[in-house]
Amino acid sequence: MTSTGAPTSPAFRVFLVDDHAVFRSGVRTELGREADMEIVGEAGGVAEAVAGIDASRPDVVLLDVHMPDGGGVAVLGRIAPGPVCLALSVSDAAEDVIAVIRAGARGYVTKTISGTELADAVRRVAGGDAVFSPRLAGFVLDSFTGRSSVPEPPLDPELDSLTPRELEVLRLLARGYTYREIAEELVISVKTVETHASNVLRKTQQSNRNALTRWAHRRRID
After folding, report:
1. Bridge partners for 43 per DSSP
2. Tell me: the pLDDT tens digits for 18-62?
3. Which end of the chain is more exposed for a tag (fewer CB within 10 A), N or C?
């Protein structure tokens, strides 16, 4: 028998921002199992996210770090004050963690987190806690105390051989952009993108785009 008049806990209102619809669907499913979680909106890009967050006024925004049109830092810089933002990213690179925390995020967890752990992280940041894994918390502490425990990256002649423009093209290729999308993003011609991509393949000694993407991800270039 259900009781009548029993008080219910207010739901934590959550907005999802990630450019991968399949991942958003998985997060919706996981958080949907929690009685105190309500997904009030989602977005796959910066402009859509800013509009949706400002309209729905969630308690917590789960925010991807890398997106084609600017990423988490761009969202943090444009939304109205109010929601607490928790970065949820595939990257555990120190520079990504520090960038979004400086931009205003309250915590940072990686996409290897379980659904139960993610729900707990949402509750904690909504309650005022800062949420990090121990390793990521170390990056933030070192940054704000003026120390750095992040080791110098090993020498990588193949990566070092790329020009700044070739590195930009590599990053966008690793994120799944088409040549035309890269051309629009960098305001160059498709032919120029093809030339840069060919140079990147040659310099990194990769045989095709799939191999290049794996090579880039191993180096956390995304």
Report:
1. 17
2. 999 999 999 999 999 999 999 999 999 888 999 999 999 999 999
3. N
CA distance 105 to 218: 26
Q: What average pLDDT does range 106-121 have in this prediction?
A: 92
Last residue of a domain, one of 120, 144, 168: 144
The last residue of one of the domains, among 144, 170, 198, is 144
The structure tokens listed for 39 are: 């997904």
Tell me which residue range forms the domain holding 196.
157-218
Number of structural domains the chain divides into: 2
Q: At 123, which CATH number?
A: 3.40.50.2300
Asked whether the beta carbons of 215 and 171 are under 8 A apart, the reply is no
At 131, is the secondary structure helix, strand, or coil? strand
Indicate the DSSP class of residue 152: P
Residue 53: other Cβ atoms inside 10 A: 24
pTM: 0.62
What are 99's two structure tokens?
Answer: 């960038």
Q: How many CA atoms lie within 13 A of 115 on its CB side?
A: 13
Alpha carbon distances (Å) from 40 to 31, 77, 196: 12, 21, 42
Structure tokens at 135: 């390793």
